[in-house]
Amino acid sequence: MKNLIDIMQLSVEELDELIATAMDIIADPAKYSQVCRGKKLATLFFEPSTRTRLSFEAAMYELGGNVLGFSEAQSSSAAKGESVADTIKVVSCYADIIAMRHPKEGAPLVAANNADVPIVNAGDGGHNHPTQTLADLLTIYREKGGFEDLTIGLCGDLKFGRTVHSLMSAMSRYKGVKFVLISPEELRLPDYVVDDVLKGRNIPYEECTSLEDAMPKLDILYMTRVQKERFFNEADYMRLKDSYILTPEKLRTAKETLSILHPLPRVNEISVAVDDDPRACYFRQALNGKYMRMALIMKLLEVKPW
Ligand code: CP
């Protein structure tokens, strides 16, 4: 595999390998501290980011490599009208691997078709976010011990939330997984995801609008932010933005073993009063993202610690 554009490019066996590498990095980080010495990662972020960009950069530094790039389109020659294809051909001359975020769906695929080095999709519009899914999977693995027989509630903006689309695709391959889709009518999961992932793979699912009704049956609750940047008008965003706010009161009927995930950033959808609940995994999830990105960089650059 040369690029990671869509999480489904990774087989279950390859995901297992990445998780095993990440677990070994956690156990013995010194073993990996020089594996990317002399290598450079370019982070090309045409959209804002905290976790994805900085965890990619931290990952490369912790592997002994170096980092270059930009954090907004306005500080690159995209602001002068340069195409993604030209940008990538040029950056391929300077870096060994590129992580790219772009507001247009499909832009990382265009990049991959024009690159001489591996391209990682770090989020493309409302489409996919495969490395967030790697963070989510390591979190589920560490919190639950595996991926089978889980009822997963996905709550919030299921229409524009690209992390939801990638996670559902990945989890749909495990036995006994069920989804509960909790959203306002206007932010329901797009039909193409329902058809391809759920109906296409015969995965049990239900749709509802009430987080309270869904809560008691969930093993995992994946909260999401309403994606303001994807709305066409402010009034719709204002009306929908606080559709779901997770509070300690709403968790009263939840399982003791529930794991609460959120790709972050959060706005209002999880009260800070939930942060001290041991079931709140979202900051551990952000850390797991760094370990999985370390494992992915090593895989794409074909480097090993021995
Ligand atoms: N989860 C995530 O993609 O966060 P950032 O937008 O901060 O990268």
Strand content: 5-15%
Spatial strand order of the main sheet: 7-6-5-8-9
Can you tell me the CATH superfamily of the largest domain? Aspartate/ornithine carbamoyltransferase
- Average pLDDT level: 95
Uncertain spans: none
Named at the architecture level, the CATH assignment of the largest domain is: 3-Layer(aba) Sandwich
The shape is globular
Bound ligand species: phosphoric acid mono(formamide)ester
Q: CATH topology of the largest domain, which one?
A: Rossmann fold
Helix share, percent: 25-40%
Number of strands: 9
Specify the biggest β-sheet.
5 strands, parallel
User: Quick one: CATH class of the largest domain?
Assistant: Alpha Beta
The radius of gyration is: 19 Å
